[in-house]
């Protein structure tokens, strides 16, 4: 397709936009890894009578076509300067495509800041779950709603009581984004809640007055995470999904009898190799030892495998910080700059993947992708013709 693009660029009526560089996903390491290893992995699973679900294959197939001109493009022309460019179609998937995920991240953050979150202080609450519950929520999505309801009620009740009010006279609000990935691109279902850092007090004639509350103390977080863990355990036990004894809780079903894809999910959750001659072994990881022991974290509390963090907040006037928070909680699993390839001994390769949690996204607010295709298609003065 590169030759076809050069032919168009050399046409008499084609004026290339100055400084424009088309996004080329086929040059990225993630694309090369998927293109090299996915077909063999898919075929091996099928040969073992453990085929991948159709939606998984569709996700990979769409990603391998995303951003490539040979799978369709728009020829966009500026009516004013006559500059033209080719914009490849995108997959618009929600799985792991970095380009489409970054665009959705930017759009989601803008929507939350401009049209959803009020001009009030916001605090991020993050709840992580034990391994067994991560598997349960990953394989039974309907349970996510049940668990999230318990979590939100516990946090909102805490805020209302801390404002010296009762549920009958106060309300609060939150936006929750459910993330399914961890920092190592492992499966890790957990909750990011952007919660009002206060409550609205009901007054006469339907008026609402905002009442801010102080940040939670370490003791309050400990009591809250213990309460959340106990309520979730009781609720799931009543539904017959887990069994509990004095010390531990167990899934009330055998994961080995689940669908073939669930074995891959379990391996990803527990950092184990899912297939091949080393199936079941722990993934080899490299870690850097801290020079000093970790300092106590007053904004974090843990109980029975649950972890609750509430250390990041933004004032009502800090809309830029709130938008950065919104981008963080809606970020895609993988980003191009966070995946590196390291050459090792004997010609082997190791790959490092990072979800991007430790590095903020840059770039313009409204464009999280590498090429402004969406904006170009809607801007006044531009006309587009489609080729596929």
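-> sequence recovered:
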């Amino acid at each position: 397709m590169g030759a076809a693009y050069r032919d168009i660029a050399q046409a008499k009526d084609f004026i290339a936009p100055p400084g424009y560089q088309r996004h080329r996903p086929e040059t990225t390491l993630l694309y090369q890894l998927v293109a090299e290893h996915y077909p063999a992995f898919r075929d091996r699973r099928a040969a073992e009578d453990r085929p991948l679900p159709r939606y998984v294959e569709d996700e990979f197939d769409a990603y391998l076509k995303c951003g490539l001109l040979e799978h369709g493009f728009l020829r966009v022309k500026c009516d004013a300067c006559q500059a033209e460019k080719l914009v490849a179609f995108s997959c618009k998937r929600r799985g792991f495509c970095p380009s489409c995920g970054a665009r959705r991240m930017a759009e989601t953050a803008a929507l939350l800041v401009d049209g959803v979150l009020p001009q009030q202080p916001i605090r991020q609450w993050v709840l992580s779950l034990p391994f067994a519950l991560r598997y349960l929520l990953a394989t039974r999505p309907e349970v996510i709603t049940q668990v999230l309801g318990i979590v939100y009620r516990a946090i909102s009740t805490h805020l209302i009581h801390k404002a010296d009010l009762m549920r009958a006279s106060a309300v609060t609000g939150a936006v929750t984004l459910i993330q399914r990935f961890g920092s190592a691109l492992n499966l890790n279902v957990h909750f990011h809640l952007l919660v009002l850092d206060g409550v609205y007090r009901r007054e006469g004639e339907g008026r609402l007055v905002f009442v801010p509350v102080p940040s939670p103390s370490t003791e309050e977080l400990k009591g809250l995470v213990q309460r959340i863990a106990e309520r979730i355990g009781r609720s799931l036990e009543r539904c017959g999904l887990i069994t509990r004894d004095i010390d531990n809780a167990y899934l009330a079903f055998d994961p080995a009898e689940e669908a073939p894809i669930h074995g891959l999910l379990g391996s990803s959750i527990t950092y184990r190799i899912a297939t091949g001659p080393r199936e079941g072994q722990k993934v080899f990881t490299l870690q850097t030892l801290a020079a000093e022991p970790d300092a106590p974290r007053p904004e974090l509390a843990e109980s029975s495998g649950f972890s609750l963090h509430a250390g990041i907040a933004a004032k009502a006037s800090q809309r830029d910080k709130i938008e950065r928070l919104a981008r963080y909680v809606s970020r895609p699993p993988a980003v191009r700059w966070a995946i590196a390839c390291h050459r090792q001994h004997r010609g082997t390769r190791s790959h490092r993947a990072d979800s991007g949690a430790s590095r903020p996204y840059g770039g313009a607010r409204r464009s999280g992708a590498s090429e402004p295709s969406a904006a170009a298609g809607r801007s006044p003065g531009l006309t587009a013709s489609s080729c596929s």
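The chain has two domains: 2-94+367-387, 120-315.
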